[in-house]
Amino acid sequence: MGFGGISIWQLVIVLGIVILLFGTKKLRGLGGDIGSAVKGFKKAMNEEDTKDANESADKKKITNEDAQFSEQASTDEKKDKTPDSSSK
Q1: 5-40, pLDDT tens digit by residue?
Q2: Residue 61: beta bridge partners?
Q3: Distance of alpha carbon 42 from its chain centroid, rounded?
Q4: Are 27 and 19 contacting, i.e. CB atoms less than 8 angstroms apart?
Q5: For residue 22, which of 32, 12, 30 has the smallest C-alpha distance?
C-alpha cells in the first residue's frame, strides 16, 4: 500500500494516462513553467525579507538617534537651570 491507499501500480497507470493525454513536450514545458514560478516566488520572498530587515535597521537607527538627541537636550536643560558659580 502506498500513499493513502493508492498503490504504486495505480500511480504508474495514472502517470501513463497523463503522458498519453498531454505528451512529453507539454509536460516538460509545464514543469519548466512551474519551476520558473517557484524560483520567482523564492526571489520575491528573499527581496521582501531583505527589505523588511533594512526597514527595521533604519527604524532602530532613527530610534537611537532620537534617544541621543533627547539625552543631549535634557543635559542642556540641566545646565541652563543650574546657577553658575562664576556669576556670584
Answers
A1: 889 999 999 999 999 998 988 888 999 999 999 999
A2: none
A3: 9
A4: yes
A5: 30
**pLDDT tens digit string along 44-68?**
988 887 877 777 777 777 776 666 6
Whether this model's pTM surpasses 0.70: no
Angstrom CA distances, 67 to 10, 60, 72, 76, stand at 67, 11, 9, 14
Q: Which three cell numbers stand for residue 45?
A: 520572498
How many CA within 13 A on the CB side of residue 81? 6
d(CA 19, CA 81): 87
Residue 15 corresponds to which cell in the numbers above?
502517470
